[in-house]
Amino acid sequence: MGLSAGDWQALWLTARLAATVTALLLVLGTPLAWWLARSRSLWKGPVAALVALPLVLPPTVIGFYLLLAMGPQGPLGHLATLSGLAPLAFSFPGLVLASLVYSLPFTVQPLQAAFEGIGERPLEAAATLRASPLDAFLTVALPLARSGYLTAAVLTFAHTVGEFGVVLMIGGNIPGVTGVQPTYVQKFRFFSQLRGERRTADPAELLFSRQQNGAGRGRSGLYVPAGWLEG
C-alpha cells in the first residue's frame, strides 16, 4: 500500500501551508505577545480578547466573514484588485491569510506566557549594564522564552494542519491550489457515506487506501477499497 499522487499533493500543500503560517506568526506574533506581556494599557484587555476570539467562534463563522472580506466587494478583495494582485478568495495566499487569523492565539498566548514568566530582574540587570531595550530583548528575553517559542511553533503547526472549516470556506478544495489534507479526508468520508457505507473509516486508512484487488476509483477521484462501491 502507498500514497496516490493526490495524497502526496495534498500532504505537500498542507505542510507548505502549515510551515508558512507558523513562520509568519512567530515573527508577527512576537511584538504583539511582548506588548501584551509588558503593557499596562487599558487596551490590553480588549486586544487580548480579540486575539482569543478564534478559540470561541466556530471556524465556519470565522471563515464566512473572512470570505466576505476577501471577496470582490470586500475590503481585502478590493484592495487586492486595486494593487493588481490575484483574488484572495479560493487561492493559496488567501488560505495563508485566513490561517494567520485562525491560528493567531496558538502563537501569541504561549509567547505571552513565556515573556511574563521572565520577570523583571533579568531585564533590569541588562539595563544596569547599559543594554538598550532592543539589546535586552534580543539577548535576554528571547533566549529565556525559547520554550515558549517551541510550544507556539508546535501548536500553530498542528492547528494549521488540522483546520477544516476555515480552509473549506476560504479555499474550497482545488487540487494543487487549496486542496489540503483535511478537505481531502472529509471529501473521502463524505463520498463513502454517500455510498451507504456504515462503518467509520480510520483516518490512517483514508490516507493510505489504494485501489487493490478489483477496487474501483470513484467519481471523486479518490481510491476506494474493494467492496465500498457495491450495493
From TrEMBL:
It comes from the Bacteria. GO terms for molecular function: molybdate ion transmembrane transporter activity. Its main location: membrane. The keyword Disulfide bond does not apply. The chain crosses the membrane at residues 12-35, 47-68, 80-102. InterPro entries: MetI-like, MetI-like_sf, ModB_ABC. Keywords: Cell inner membrane, Cell membrane, Membrane, Molybdenum, Transmembrane, Transmembrane helix, Transport. The keyword Cell membrane applies. GO terms for cellular component: plasma membrane. Residues 11-231 form the ABC transmembrane type-1 domain. It is a multi-pass membrane protein. NCBIfam families: modB_ABC (TIGR02141). Belongs to the binding-protein-dependent transport system permease family. CysTW subfamily. This is Molybdenum transport system permease. It comes from Luteimonas wenzhouensis.
